[in-house]
């Protein structure tokens, strides 16, 4: 069995691990994080909402849909 080791349990590490499993379901994925808990920084960013936007150039539209 093939395996992939992802170093870093932040958002990028989690998305990398998920992407590997999505495209290669028979590959074993191991996620390593040196901190106490994975995704710790994601939890504190944006008040827990992660401040994610995608190509929103209209500030009125962004403000109307922002979850705060």
Q: Taking Cα atoms only, what radius of gyration do you get, to the nearest Å? A: 16 Å
> How many structural domains?
1
- The chain-level structural class is alpha+beta
- Which parts are unreliable, with pLDDT below 50 for 5 consecutive residues or more? none
Number of strands: 2
Strand content of the residues, in percent?
Answer: 5-15%
Morphology: elongated
Task: Please list the strands of the largest sheet in the order they lie side by side.
Answer: 1-2
Largest sheet: 2 strands, parallel
Binned, the helix content reads 25-40%
Ends apart, CA distance between termini:
45 Å
- Helix count equals 3
Look at the structure and give the mean pLDDT.
83
Instruction: State the order of secondary-structure elements, H for helix, E for strand.
Output: EHEHH
Task: Describe this protein's structure.
The mean pLDDT is 83. It contains three helices and two strands. Strand 1 (3-7), helix 1 and strand 2 form a beta-alpha-beta unit. The chain is an alpha+beta fold and 68 residues long. The chain has helices at 11-23, 40-44, 59-65, and strands spanning 3-7, 28-32. The chain has one domain (3-65).
Top keywords for this entry?
alpha+beta
Q: Mind sketching the topology for me?
A:
Layout: E1 3-7, H1 11-23, E2 28-32, H2 40-44, H3 59-65
Parallel strand pairs: 1-2
Short description:
The protein has one domain.
